[in-house]
Write a structure and sequence with these properties.
Shape of chain B: globular
Number of strands of chain A: 11
Largest sheet of chain B: 6 strands, mixed
Oligomer: heterodimer
Number of helices of chain B: 0
Structural class of chain B: mainly beta
Strand content of chain A: over 45%
Helix content of chain B: under 10%
Order of helices and strands of chain B: EEEEEEEEEEEE
Number of strands of chain B: 12
Order of helices and strands of chain A: EEEEEEEEEEE
Distance between the termini of chain B: 41 Å
Largest interface: A-B, 31 and 24 residues
Helix content of chain A: under 10%
Structural class of chain A: mainly beta
Shape of chain A: globular
Radius of gyration of chain B: 14 Å
Strand content of chain B: over 45%
Chain lengths: 113, 115
């Protein structure tokens, strides 16, 4: 059964701690993406990767880091430098190419206490 | 630069009536346009896309969208709304001439279908 998995679904962390969100896909997609969703602001791109071992900053990369060591995995680390990390985080993947739609995971809701 | 606007934060429609969710875009090249739906606390689901060809695009769950180049619009439509269509709808655009795969999303429109 192909798809994208994100874990955990809910995550609570204390202020000042780094936290890593998991994203795994078995769709054999080359491209992967991380978005942040806040109420009334739509989706904003954090980072994206078009191929293994390569990634680019999106519109709001400050305070976040990623790695792409394997085709199927694209973990996102929310660092203590991110000033307002509480949000809903969505991972997506797609076939390489501009005409292809993105497939989304179920999301991780991060709450920083 | 590419951008997309969804002018309505919320749309209310009675069950059985036609629905329209509006979207306008701005790109420097030709647009690739997408509609997604999101149910509460879930990821986004792809509904339909326009790449080229026929201006009327049909998608999942009976939805369709009409591409209008002169008005730079890509409105989502359905002839008869269901209560189960109540959700958050996102329009997205990608500039065919841009160097990256970046997809720009609108802020979303909340659709409420009233029984």
């Amino acid at each position: 059964d192909g798809g994208i998995t994100q874990s955990p679904k809910y995550l609570f962390r204390k202020e000042g701690q780094n936290v890593t969100l998991s994203c795994e896909q078995n769709l054999n997609h080359d491209a992967m993406y991380w978005y942040r969703q806040d109420p009334g602001q739509g989706l904003r791109l954090i980072y994206y990767s078009q191929i293994v071992n390569d990634f680019q900053k999106g519109d709001i990369a400050e305070g976040y880091s990623v790695s792409r060591e394997k085709k199927e995995s694209f973990p996102l680390t929310v660092t203590s430098a991110q000033k307002n990390p509480t949000a809903f985080y969505l991972c997506a993947s797609s076939i390489s190419g501009k005409i292809y739609e993105q497939f989304f995971g179920p999301g991780t809701r991060l709450t920083v206490l | 630069a590419q951008s997309v606007a969804q002018p309505e934060d919320q749309v209310n429609v009675a069950e059985g009536n036609p629905l329209t969710v509006k979207c306008t875009y701005s790109v420097s090249g030709n647009p690739y346009l997408f509609w997604y739906v999101q149910y509460p606390n879930r990821g986004l689901q792809f509904l339909l896309k326009y790449i080229t060809g026929d201006n009327l695009v049909k998608g999942s769950y009976g939805f369709e969208a009409e591409f209008n180049k002169s008005q730079t619009s890509f409105h989502l439509k359905k002839p008869s709304a269901l209560v189960s269509d109540s959700a958050l709808y996102f329009c997205a655009v990608r500039d065919s001439g841009a160097g990256s795969y970046q997809l720009t999303f609108g802020k979303g429109t909340k659709l409420s279908v009233i029984p």
